[in-house]
Amino acid sequence: MRFRGRCWKFGDYIPTDQIVPSHLVYRPMSDIVRQVLATLNPEFPERVQPGDILVAGKHFGQSSGRAIAAKAIQATGVACVVAENFARTFYRNAFEIGLAVLECPGISEAVQEGDLLDVDVESGWVRNETTGRALRGEPTPPFLLEMLRAGGLIPFGPRLLERFGGGWPGRVD
User: Fold this and answer.
1) What is the CA radius of gyration of the chain?
2) Which residues contact 104 (CB under 8 A, 6 or more apart)?
3) Are strands 134-136 and 2-9 parallel, antiparallel or unpaired?
4) Of 153, 145, 164, 171, residue with least CA distance to 1
């Protein structure tokens, strides 16, 4: 899976409450999208375009485990999120909803906001087409790639049932 888009750059230790403020979590997604990451960059929700790539530093998506943060980023049209590393819950939530993410140490120093990026989540390669610099992150495990290709956990479920003959391995009836 490859994505090519304009970079939006954010820093380290961004909690889910800065991705989606807690007072918005029960609002319609159309309201939430207009506020995604606005406390960090007010231009982001106004100017983000489908296919853009969000780049972040260390421990992106920390704090609460609300999946609404990953869903809201996806709803903006962002194609992929590349970060130095992710909070584990955010990482899991992203795959479960079908949002491509890639851990890539060194990415924060390798890009500037507005750079054109080419991201291959399968191999782990990120190429900054603006500067020509390339970095290799952690390739996405095959199981998670399958989940992404299916569009997330819910659409992937029938494939899992088919793979395991309608039951789960180790299940005792």
Assistant:
1) 16
2) 82, 83, 84, 124, 126, 135, 136, 137, 138
3) unpaired
4) 145
Q: What domains does the chain contain, in order, with CATH numbers? A: 2-163 (3.20.19.10)
pTM: 0.91
- Match 């982001």 to its residue by tokens: 44
For residue 27, how many other CB atoms are within 10 A of its CB?
Answer: 15
Q: Is 139 helix (H, G, I), strand (E, B) or coil?
A: coil
Residue 72 structure tokens: 């809201």
> Mean pLDDT, 10 residues at a time, over the chain (173 residues)?
97 96 92 96 97 98 88 97 97 96 97 98 97 96 94 87 66 52
Q: Are 117 and 82 in contact (CB under 8 A)?
A: yes
CB under 8 Å to 129, separation ≥6 — which residues? 4, 115, 116, 117, 118
Q: Are 74 and 98 in contact (CB under 8 A)?
A: yes
